[in-house]
Amino acid sequence: MKYNAGITGIGISIPKKVLTNKDLENMVETSDEWIVSRTGIKERRIADENIAASDLSTEAAKEAILMAGIDAKDVDLIIVTTVTPDMLYPATAAIVQNNIGAVNAAAFDVSAGCTGFIYGVTIATQFIETGFYKNILVIGCDLLSKVTDFTDRNTCVLFGDGCGAVLISRTEEKGIIDEYIMADGSGADFLSLPAGGSRMPSTIETVNKRLHYTFMNGPEVFKFAVKAMPEAVTKLIEKSGFNLSSIDYLIPHQANIRIIESAAKRLGISMDNVGITLDKYGNMSSASIPVTLYEDFKNKKIKKGDNIILVGFGAGLTYGAVLIKWML
Ligand code: UT7
């Protein structure tokens, strides 16, 4: 027997501190005009020094659980998708498990770059559909400011901090309709945090060479993204038996407005039906998709019964998409 899965609660946590393009003009050689015209980003949020991924995750998870109306003790599994965990180990998900009192839950992190949330939802859905679990928290959380070199104009204008969580539960109706995830590891070097792992352990030299910050080959990632997002949506649509005309809304990963416009155009989807938050939050990696979903639900762009595609790409390189029927 196959059970149904659906999103029954959603929550976010966004730091209050705003870093504007004007602020960045005082930090690196850039301009508000360049950043807006090349990326669409106007400002982003930056977490305080003492705040880590588990702090934002805990807040977002509590809101999602509250909305779903369940007790933390009823959560069976917590998945945190992140490339900026509190530490290399233990998993940030385990810290969240303790913070929210989910004493009956298993916990692990998923590292799939900015596609993390899509991977997390896909994993959770399998656990629900087989009947193994009933309630799973999927938390997309990244604090990219913590691993951004604020002397590197190629990257520091892009990233911001944030977190979005959903509760995925066993439901009567099918809320998560289909999933597609993929990777192309030949592009692993295009987007990485080179040092601090087993390949290049931390030394004075790695610190001096600034190897603990995000490295990105922007044009290569751009080329990948404009191909990967439409491909993921097309594969998902084929697999699901739906067609694009029955899709009400698209929520893409928020990296660059030019990438999003190009994907929407290739798919024949009007920008009126595409969720955008990058102007105010920048690229929050794993958090971009759930935060945009939350905001467009709260401002009523998304309505109960809508067919929505979530689509992402990121470090790995990874990409993927999920088709959901909105149930809230
Ligand atoms: O979540 C996934 C993560 N990343 C992405 O999705 C990023 C994908 N890539 C991109 O979004 C774009 O490649 C960027 C926004 C990063 C860069 O835009 P671009 O149009 O590809 O610019 P470019 O890297 O080809 O650089 C064009 C010029 C260069 O100057 P020259 O060599 O032509 O004189 C850069 O040095 O723009 C310069 N430049 C900047 N100028 C002002 C690069 N960054 C900046 C900056 N301010 N911040």
Write the layout of secondary structure elements.
Blueprint: E1 4-13, E2 18-20, H1 21-25, H2 32-39, E3 43-45, H3 53-68, E4 77-81, H4 92-100, E5 106-110, H5 116-129, E6 135-143, H6 153-156, E7 161-171, E8 176-183, E9 191-192, H7 204-208, E10 215-216, H8 218-240, E11 249-252, H9 257-267, H10 278-281, H11 288-298, E12 307-314, E13 318-325
Oxa(dethia)-CoA (UT7) binds near residues 30, 114, 221, 256 and 314.
Explain how this protein is built.
By secondary structure, this protein is of the alpha/beta class. The chain folds into 2 domains: 4-172, Peroxisomal Thiolase, Chain A, domain 1; 178-325, Peroxisomal Thiolase, Chain A, domain 1 (3-Layer(aba) Sandwich). Helix content is 34%, strand content 24%. It contains 11 helices and 13 strands. The chain has helices spanning 21-25, 32-39, 53-68, 92-100, 116-129, 153-156, 204-208, 218-240, 257-267, 278-281, 288-298, and strands spanning 4-13, 18-20, 43-45, 77-81, 106-110, 135-143, 161-171, 176-183, 191-192, 215-216, 249-252, 307-314, 318-325. A 5-stranded mixed β-sheet has the order 1-7-6-4-5, with helices on both faces. It has a 4-stranded mixed β-sheet with strand order 8-13-12-11, with helices on both faces. Strand 12 (307-314) and strand 13 form a beta hairpin. Helix 3 packs across helix 4 (92-100) and helix 8 (218-240) packs parallel to helix 9 (257-267). The radius of gyration is 19 Å and the shape is globular. Oxa(dethia)-CoA is lined by residues 30, 34-35, 38-39, 114, 153-154, 157, 191, 216, 218-219, 221-222, 225, 255-256, 283, 314. Oxa(dethia)-CoA binds next to helix 2, helix 6 and helix 8.
